[in-house]
Design a protein that fits this description.
The complex is a heterodimer of chains A (about 220) and B (about 240). Chain A is mostly helical and about 220 residues long. Chain A has eight helices and no strands. Chain A has one domain: MetI-like (MetI-like fold). Chain B has a single domain, classed as MetI-like (MetI-like fold), CATH 1.10.3720.10. The chains are: A mainly alpha (about 220), B mainly alpha (about 240).
Amino acid sequence: MFETAMTAKDFWMLVQGAGMTLLVTAISVAIGTVVGVICGIFRFQAGPWWAIPVTFVLDVCRSVPLLIQLSLAFAFVTAVLKLRISGFSVACGVLSLYTAAYCSEIVRGALESVPPNTRRAGRSLGMTWLQDMRYIALPLASRVALPSWIGLSLGVMKDSALIYVVNVSELMKSTKDLITRLQEPLFLLLLCGVFYFVISFPVARFGSYLEKRWSND
Amino acid sequence: MFNYSFRWNQAFQSLPDMLQGALVTLEVAVLSMILGILFAILLTSFRLSGNRVLRGITTTWVEVARNTPALFQIYMAFFGLAGLGIAITGWTQPHLGFAVDLRLSPYVALLAGITFNNAGYLHENFRGALKAIPDTQTRSARSLGMSAPQAFGYVVMPQMLRISFLPMTNQFVWAILMTSLGAVISMNSDLFGVTDNLVKINFRTFEMFAIAAVIFYVMTKIVTLSARLIAARLFRY
C-alpha cells in the first residue's frame, strides 16, 4: 500500500482541489450568510403569512437534492439562457442560495429565542427598531446562532463535494480523476477523507464547545 | 436570448420511469433509516458500555460519519472496499482457481454509505435525547425490580425515540436527498440515476431535472407532513 505511483505533481493536483473546495466554501458561506441573515430577519419581522414567498423558495432549496439543484441551474443558465457562465460561478450561486436557506432558518430561530421583554424594554427606552435590532436582538441572537452557523459552514464544505457535476475540479473530483488514472482507490480516498476530517473535526469541536459554553442554562 | 424551445411533452413521457425511480429512492431511504436506527442504538450501547475498545469504535464511527462528506462515504463503500477486494482477489485466485469479486453492487454500496452516515448523525440525536431523560427514570425502573436491559428497553428507549422523533424525520429527509449521490457509483435505478440516464438519451436536461426536483420536493413534503401526523397521533399524552 505504501508503494504508490503517485508523483509530486499528482499530489499538487490534490492540493489545488483542496484549495478549490475551500475557495468555493468561503465564497458561498460569505454570500449565503449575508442573504440568509437578511431573509431571516425579514421572515421573523414579517410573520409567517407575509414571508410565505421567501419561505417557499428557501424551503425548496432545502428539499431538493443539491445534485439536482446544480444540474438544473447549470442547464438553465447554459441551455435556456445561453449565457457563457463558468461552472464555478454556477456552483457558487447554488451553494450560496443553499447556505442562505439554512442560515435564514438559524437566524429566525435565534431571534425567536430572544425574550420579547428584553426587546420591549429597549424600545420603551426610546430605541428605534434598528437600534433595538443592532444593540439588543442581534447580539443576543448571535450567541444562539453561532454554533449552528459553524455547523452549517462545515456542512457546506462537505456538500461542496457535489460540485463536480458542473465541472469544477474540487478535492473530490481531483481524487476521482487520480483514481481513474492510478487505480489506487483506497489510498487516494483515505488521503481525501483525511483532508476533510482534519479541517472539519477541530472546527466542529470548537462549535460544540461554544454551544456548551454559551448555552443559557 | 430566450430561443430555447421547451419540450415538456417529451419529458413527461418518461414520468412513469421516474416515478419507478422515486420508489427505489424511497426504498433505499427507508432501509437505510431502519438500519441506521439499529446501528445508532448499537453505537449508543457501545458508548455506554464503558469498554474502551467499544467506546473507541463509537467515537471513530461518529466522528468520521459527521466530519467527511456523504459522497466520500459512498465512494469509500464502493471503490475503497473494492480496493481491499482487489487485493483479496489477487491473493485467492491462484489457490482457488476463481476470482472473488468483493466489490459491492452500487445498490448495496449506496445503502451502506447512507446507513453509515445516518447511524453517525442519529447517534448524536440519541445522545442529546438521552441527556434530556433524567437519571431518576432509570433508577426508579431499577428499584421496581426491572433488570438493566428492561429498564433501558421499556423506560428509557421509548422516551429517547420520542424526543428524537423530529430530528429523526429530518435525517430521513436527508437520507432521501442523499440517495441522489448514487449517481457517482453508477447506480441507475434511483430517481436521480433514472433521470440522468434519460437525459443522456433525450437531451431535455432542464425539463427532466425540473420534473425530478418537483418529485423530490413532493416526496420530502409528504414525509414531513405524515411524520407530523404520526407524531400527533403517537405522542398525544
